[in-house]
Amino acid sequence: MTKTLILYYSRDGHTRRMANQIARGAAAISGCEALVRTVPELTTVDARENATSTRQPPAGTNREDALYVTKEEIATTDALIVGSPTRFGNMAAPLKYFFDSTSDLWISGALCNKPAAVFTSSSSMHGGQESTLFTMMLPLMHHGMLMVGIPYTEAALEKTQSGGTPYGASHVSGHGDSPSMTAEEKALCLSLGKRVATIASQLK
After folding, report:
1. Confidence of residue 45 (pLDDT cuts 50, 70, 90)
2. DSSP string spanning 36-101?
3. Over residues 40-51, mean pLDDT
4. Which pLDDT score is estimated for 72?
């Protein structure tokens, strides 16, 4: 069995919905298990403790029943797909905080030569999606992971009028009562999950 871990941070639920769609794509590949995990909000009191624990998120969050990721899950996964909303063209602080705590995994080379991909959402069309995707790639590349994008052989990449890039899946969520993902955005999320899971299986 090949394991693909989809790790995300989401405050309003948009990135979480993308994570679940990507997981469906990964799980569609024969012999692949898809795990969906999140990271906790940062607080001055318990951020360090929470970053390495697996438990249900506090009541009132938008993460439903997603578990917090653990270092062990990161170390033992065969592929990693990381998602965050855009924060001024960068990943959200809780996700960055988690990766800042993974030096031990970097030293051990636990993620080296494993496939990885990224995804994001923003409230506007030009809200910093591509720069957010690039900044999420940086720690993964430092870990020695093999970055996987979305090729233009995917028809939805040519047709999309909202989210979707060759660097990773994306979603334009809008403001307020935002629309759900477009058909193209959903297709590209599924495609990214399938592509990463397939490559992980081939490498393993």
Report:
1. low
2. EEE-PPP-TTTHHHHTT---PPPTT-S-TTPEEP-HHHHHH-SEEEEEEE-BTTB--HHHHHHHHT
3. 64
4. 95
Residue 196 CA, distance from chain mean position: 12
- By DSSP bridging, strand 67-68 and strand 32-38 are parallel
Tens of pLDDT along 87-111? 999 999 999 999 999 999 999 999 9
Q: In angstroms, how far is CA 113 from the centroid of its own chain? A: 18
Identify the band that residue 177 occupies on the pLDDT scale cut at 50, 70 and 90.
Answer: low
The tokens 């970097």 sit on which residue?
Answer: 106
DSSP string of 123-147, one letter each residue: SSTTSSHHHHHHHHHHHHHHTT-EE
Domain ranges of the chain: 2-203
Q: Which CATH number fits domain 2-203: 3.40.50.300, 3.40.50.150, 3.40.50.360, 3.30.360.10?
A: 3.40.50.360
Nearest C-alpha neighbor of 136 from the set 70, 82, 69: 82
